[in-house]
Amino acid sequence: HSLVVLGTPMYMSPEQCKSSAKVDARSDIYALGCMLFELVCGRPPFEGDSGELIAKHQLVPPPEAREVAADVPAPLSKLIAEMLAKTPEERPQSMESVLDALDVCEGKGADATKTTALPASTRLGSRKLWLGAGGAIAIGVIAGVIATRGGSTRAPAPALVSDARIEPEAVHETPIAPLPAPPPAPPADATVAQAGGCDADDLKQKGLDLEASGLHAAALAEFEQALACKPEGRVAQYAFMAACNAGNLAKARQYYRDMTPDAQSRFLQMCIRRNITKDQLEGAEPAPALAPRPKPAATAAPPQPAPVATCDPEDLKQRGLDNESQGKHVPALAAFEAALACKPDPRVVQYAFMAACNAGNHAKAKVYYRKMTADARERFVQMCMRRDIPKDELEAP
Fold it and tell me: Which residues have CB under 8 Å from 200's CB, separation 6+?
C-alpha cells in the first residue's frame, strides 16, 4: 500500500520495479524465469547495478536463452521467454501451467517413456516435491554463483526460512541454503568527478527514476547532465531511450549515431514504437517536420505565442519539461510558473526550482526553494550549488 519498491533487483518483475503494491503470483513466475535463465545459461538475463537492473527489467527485451547457451532445448527456451514477458498477461498465469510446460520439455528427453509411465499420484507428489526441493536447490545454486563471483570470505548471513511446507507425498524436505552476505559497497567517491563535486552516478539514478515514472523529458535532462559530467556509453543508451519515449527526434538521432551498431539494433525498436523510424534516425538531413522555418523579413514583427484558450496545467508542465530537456531553461521556468498559477503542484514547484537554478535566476531559485519541503530541498539543493548558487544564499532572509 505504501508504493515502496521491495525486492532483489536481479529477479524483480517489471511491475514490481514500479511498485510493490501491484504484484501478484505472476511476478513470482517472472522471478522464477530469471532463475531458470541463470541456471541454464550461467548468468542472469540482465546485469548491472540496481538502477540499471530496474530500468532493464522495464525497458529492455530479455535475450533468448538459446542465444546465450546454444544447447538449451527449444521448448525450454520458449518457456523461459514467456515467463520473462514484460506484461503479466503474456506470462503463464499459474505455477501449475509452468509445471505443465516443464513436463512437455521433460517429455522430449531420453527419459520420456520412464517419466510418462509414472502413476498420476506419483507425478503429483513429484510436482509438489519439485516446488519445494527444486526451489531450494535453485536458491542454493544462485547463492553459490554469487558468492563465487564476489570472492567474499565473510560468513553468510542468517538463512531466510520460508513457512511453505512440502506436501505429505514428498519423500523428504530439502533445507533452504543460506543467502550470501551482500557485497561491500563501492567507495562513496568512486564515481564522483573531481571538478565541482559532479556526481555522474547520482544524476544517472535520478534519470532512471524519472524514466520509470514516465517523466521522459526530465529523465533525458538528467542523463545529459550525467554525460556532461562523465561520458559513458551506457548512459548514452539511456539518453537515447528517454529521447525516443519523449518523442524528441533531434536528440534520438544524436544518441543513435553515437551508439555501436550492436546497441543500435538492440534499442531501435524503442524509437519505432514511438513512430520514429530508422530512416529518420539514420537520415543525413532532419525530418521534414523538423525543418527550420524561414526567417521573417527584417521589418516584420517577431512572432507572438498563440494565446492559451483554457488553463491546462499538464500541458504547461509538459512544455516546461520539453524546454528544460532542450536546455531552454528560461522558457521552461516560465511554463512551470504558468502551470503553478493554473494549479499548485509540489512536483511542479521542484521543476521550477531546477529550471531557475539552471537559468542562473537567483531570485526565483530562492522563491521556490522556500516553497519546497525539507526533504525536497536536500535532494535538489545540489542542482543550484552546481550553478554557483550557494545554499546560504537560498536560505538567507
Answer: 191, 192, 193, 226, 229, 230, 232, 235
219 and 323 Cβ atoms separated by less than 8 Å: no
- 361 and 367 Cβ atoms separated by less than 8 Å: no
pTM, two decimal places = 0.33
Nearest partner of 15 among 87, 80, 103, 119, judged by Cα? 87
Helix and strand numbers (H, E) in the chain are: 21, 0
Closest CA to 221 of 368, 324, 358, 337: 324
Q: How many CB atoms lie within 10 A of CB 4?
A: 8
Q: Give 150: exposed, middle or buried? Use CB within 10 Å, 0-12, 13-18, 19+.
A: middle
What residue type is assigned to position 281 of the chain? L
- Output 174-177 pairs: Cβ under 8 A, ≥24 positions apart: 174/132, 174/133, 174/136, 174/137, 175/136, 176/136, 176/139, 176/140, 177/136, 177/139, 177/140, 177/143, 177/144
- Torsion angle defined by CA atoms of residues 234, 355, 325 and 323, in that order, rounded to the nearest 10 degrees: 180
pLDDT tens per residue across span 13-28: 998 888 777 789 999 9
Q: How does pLDDT run across 97-143, given as a tens digit for each residue?
A: 999 899 888 874 434 433 333 344 334 444 444 444 445 444 554 44
Of residues 160, 196, 161, 194, the one with CA closest to residue 180: 160
Residues 6+ apart with CB under 8 A from 205: 51
Q: Which three cell numbers stand for residue 310?
A: 483554457
